[in-house]
């Protein structure tokens, strides 16, 4: 398929913020796309080069793209930068310059979806000396054959900043509309120029089957191909692979223990909410792999955990889930997340840091065992299974602390016990709840005493001055607008960050290091940042404000911790911000 067709679709998608319209456009496109192009197309539509379970990144900074545009168009980098400042978007800038191209190209070849995909993917593989030049060449090769419209999207895809707003829900529905018209009882209404389900129940069933297939594969390419070639039977039969990571189930927030009972039912299970980080323990073919909740593989970083899982969890293959909590090896006191988070990214001296910052694993869920999915098994039975598989050893591995109760008094006592133990609070879980990967369905809720915080994505920063020069010292933060799939800004954070390397808390140096590979356009001291890094932010109040694109601003925002474990897509949503805004008004009224 020609890339030109995809570029035209991007234009149409970008021109509407209505989800239904987007779904329509996508469905029509998927329908006519040959099977052979579906894997690449399904990724490119969401601005991705790799499925969600694959953590490779393109890692192209804007200066590389500038050089590529210069090589392809013959304009000097300074001229392109000047245009960029006027136009505001590097994709649009390149499109404009390509249309006025200075260098005559010899009969350019038309770009195909495959060609663009291949070149962009190669970008992620280039490392070491000569990588910059090779990356510049790969991009400029595409640009020399690209029309202005294609140029815009080649550049935006290379920068991982596509901005056409195709969220997971929209992709899933488009696949249903495109490939399951008969099963889902959907027909195309010529007058309305839209797909319409005739029978809501049938429709919901098919949507559920496609969502499930995505939940267990995390790969729309695979789901689209199976849908097109295998139909409902194949898609319903897609099962978990113990070799691949899986999106975690998310928990809603309850205001109190009484609220928790109301939402998950009475009796219910209460567990400690540990202040650590989630790990998925996967065993397949005798090999153990560990994944974070960002679906990053961290097996190498945690040889101690691999050992504990190998020795103390029974089964030839499985996926279990738990929280790794750091503790002080001398005093055996549990430590807050910030202290051990450095282990997640550690590349060297791994054994040494493992000794310095050991972790204890608290297993709290099971997703499959010996090749059988346990997603549809009620929580209480999953828990029994865990207890039968885990051989507990203090300060190594054990089942999460849990009680089942219907009593307010017992729940309160357990909650206080969790807090005394230094944990964040408790989780309340519905005894019959199944496991829903990637969704916040409400089978479980969390109860925490501390003031609410928001997990926000850094989308911009400012270079510091004086003693902070050389560091990025103020960070623009954003939440996720689920309607459009875009990040909307909500404030600037400059406090809560340490100037000196200390044992606890984030430093400017650390944040600057994390953000440097993600930097985009600079305007004076301000610089745009690709939305990848999530930080947890405390604040005094949420206010309505015209200053930021979310329509809200935080009063006295302060960095609490870098959520190195959290993917940008799981940042707090605009809806949560709106809810918190209303709740706080309720309190002050
Ligand atoms: P939050 O990050 O506040 O949305 O809370 C969800 C996270 O709490 C999960 O991803 C786990 O990492 C963590 N957690 C700690 N203890 C438990 C537990 N007993 N059950 C489930 N999740 C837990």
Report helical residue fraction. 25-40%
| Mean pLDDT over the residues | 90
Oligomer: single chain
Quantity of strands, as a count? 22
Contiguous low-pLDDT stretches (5 residues minimum) are none
User: What is the CATH superfamily label of the domain at 252-447?
Assistant: DNA ligase/mRNA capping enzyme
CATH hierarchy: architecture of the domain at 252-447: 2-Layer Sandwich
C-alpha Rg (nearest Å): 25 Å
Structural class, by secondary structure, is: alpha+beta
What is the fold named in CATH at topology level of the domain at 252-447?
D-amino Acid Aminotransferase, Chain A, domain 1
| Structural shape | globular
Distinct ligands, ions and cofactors found in the model: adenosine monophosphate
Give an overview of the whole structure.
- The radius of gyration is 25 Å and the shape is globular.
- By secondary structure, it is an alpha+beta fold.
- The strands form five sheets. Strands 14, 15, 16, 17, 18, 19 and 22 form a seven-stranded antiparallel sheet that branches.
- The longest helix is centred in the middle third of the chain and has 18 residues, at 200-217.
- It is built from 21 helices and 22 strands.
- The relative contact order is 0.09.
- Strand 15 (472-481) and strand 16 (486-493) form a beta hairpin.
- The model has no long low-confidence stretch (mean pLDDT 90).
- Among the domains are: 252-447, DNA ligase/mRNA capping enzyme (D-amino Acid Aminotransferase, Chain A, domain 1), CATH 3.30.470; 454-586, OB fold (Dihydrolipoamide Acetyltransferase, E2P) (Beta Barrel), CATH 2.40.50.140.
- Bound molecules: adenosine monophosphate.
- Adenosine monophosphate binds at residues 248, 250-251, 271-274, 278, 293, 323, 364, 400, 427, 446.
